[in-house]
Write a structure and sequence with these properties.
This protein is an alpha/beta fold. It has 9 helices and 9 strands. α2 crosses α4 and α7 packs antiparallel against α8. The protein is globular.
Length: about 220
């Protein structure tokens, strides 16, 4: 199966978590051994947002703020790629084209952001579209998608299965801004919706959830 794994910065980079990154490296190797083709997109989390704040306070443009966040996400991607050894790419791809080429070489592709104005969610969706992925799994800091933000509302309920059309209705924000933080970015959803790419949102603090999602077992929230 061709799978895109989106590892949220909230999981591996808020703060930097070397233990869980090492667990993800082991899990990715296991999936590779099972014959799956993998593209992994890593976010920069709170570290990226801290640098966005610094850039903003320095009076830098939204474009430059995004550029700084992209560099942070690529640093985390590089760490994970290094942990994969020979199975990882020689260097972190900086475009969808480069990611496709690395996948053709049989590598576990690991990348971060690619250009300002685009979240790593959107990068993952674009790559999934380009390589015709059968599944996109997003590892986040929540157990799935909820009716409300569970961090703010005690009565929030987790949704087991959701259509892309219904998901759009849950958004509080519908356009990109530097440092946007939602379960799935609106632009990414538009791409996934167009392609009808099967997507599962899981708790990324339990890396084994990725394995369960790939096996087709019930975990997190399924979007289709």
């Amino acid at each position: 199966m061709r799978v895109v794994v989106r590892i949220g910065g909230s999981v591996v980079a808020s703060p930097p978590n070397p233990e869980i990154m090492s667990k993800y490296a082991s899990l990715l190797k296991e999936l590779k051994e099972q014959g799956h083709e993998l593209v992994v997109v890593v976010g920069g989390g709170s570290v990226a947002r801290d640098f966005i704040t610094v850039a903003r306070d320095m009076g830098l443009s939204e474009f430059d703020q995004d550029e700084v966040a992209i560099r942070v996400s690529r640093l985390f991607a590089q760490l994970l790629a290094m942990k994969l050894g020979d199975l990882g790419p020689g260097s972190v791809p900086t475009s969808v084209d480069e990611a496709v080429q690395e996948l053709k070489r049989g590598k576990i592709v690991v990348m971060g952001g690619i250009k300002p104005g685009m979240t790593t969610d959107t990068v993952a969706a674009m790559v999934a579209e380009r390589v015709e992925a059968e599944l996109l799994v997003k590892a986040t800091d929540q157990n799935g998608i909820y009716t409300k933000d569970p961090r703010r509302y005690a009565d929030a309920e987790k949704i087991g299965i959701l259509s892309f059309d219904d998901l759009v209705q849950l958004f509080e924000e519908n356009k990109h801004r530097a440092g946007i933080h939602q379960v799935v970015d609106p632009e990414a959803v538009r791409i996934l919706q167009k392609e009808r790419t099967k997507t599962v949102v899981v708790n990324g603090f339990k890396p084994e959830n990725i394995l369960l999602a790939v096996k087709g077992e019930k975990v997190g929230t399924l979007i289709e």
